[in-house]
Design goal:
Blueprint (H helix, E strand, L loop, with lengths): L2 H14 L3 H10 L5 E6 L15 E7 L3 H12 L5 E4 L13 E7 L8 H11 E12 L5 H17 L9 H7 L2 E10 L5 H4 E9 L1
Parallel strand pairs: 1-2, 1-4, 2-3, 4-5
Antiparallel strand pairs: 5-7, 6-7
């Protein structure tokens, strides 16, 4: 692991994922989590303050980057519910079948290399009737923006730890075996359009 990935990237990602417009998006989905929650891509723990402790029993935080876990742990220790960290990639979820009530995805699908394998794992651990909640940036609806997303995707990925800016989020969720039951989308304010088109909502197992 180079200097950039170990020392610079965690600070960069924490800042990029913690801007006011992105925090507003987190506030729209995280409070809806209930029961036992699997948060895929916990990062530096930016969602922890938005969980409703009256509705959440515990949170499993799946995060493979030790630098991000180190940032998240102090926040987890202050949480009003247990937080258990899982230091594996998103494609590997070491939980039992039908063992969580909610799966939470916030700005995670853009980075997971094997998205379909990861979605299969989420579907496996989610209880029947459970909910997948998401807020993800991805492919914009405008052709001009799409063109620049495709042009800059590789460069941005090298800067931002493998983040993709042109993934079709609804298609990934649907192809992963989920049915989207509620979804909104918009360009997040004060964010470059190639980075800021965001989808958020809920889905259930097909």
């Amino acid at each position: 692991m180079g200097f950039y990935n170990k020392y610079v990237l965690p600070r960069f990602l924490n800042a990029a994922c913690g801007t006011k417009p992105i925090i507003k998006q987190r506030e729209k989905v995280v409070p809806a989590c209930t029961g036992r929650v699997l948060e895929v891509g916990m990062g530096s723990g930016l969602n922890l303050s938005f969980y409703d402790p009256d509705k959440v029993d515990m949170v499993f935080g799946l995060e493979p980057a030790p630098e991000m876990v180190a940032r998240a742990k102090p926040l987890a220790e202050k949480a009003a519910f247990p937080v258990e960290f899982i230091d594996l990639p998103g494609e590997e979820i070491p939980l039992e079948d039908n063992s969580v009530d909610t799966v939470l995805l916030t700005y995670t699908l853009c980075t997971i290399p094997g998205t379909l394998a990861a979605m299969e794992g989420m579907r496996r651990v989610l209880k029947p009737g459970g909910t997948l909640l998401f807020s993800e940036h991805g492919r914009a609806p405008d052709a001009a923006v799409q063109k620049w997303q495709d042009r800059l995707n590789g460069v941005w990925g090298r800067i931002a730890g493998g983040c993709n800016i042109n993934r079709d989020i609804p298609t990934l969720i649907e192809e992963g075996g989920f049915k989207i039951t509620d979804m909104d989308a918009m360009y997040v304010p004060s964010t470059p359009r190639i980075l800021g088109f965001t989808y958020w909502g809920a889905a259930q197992i097909r």
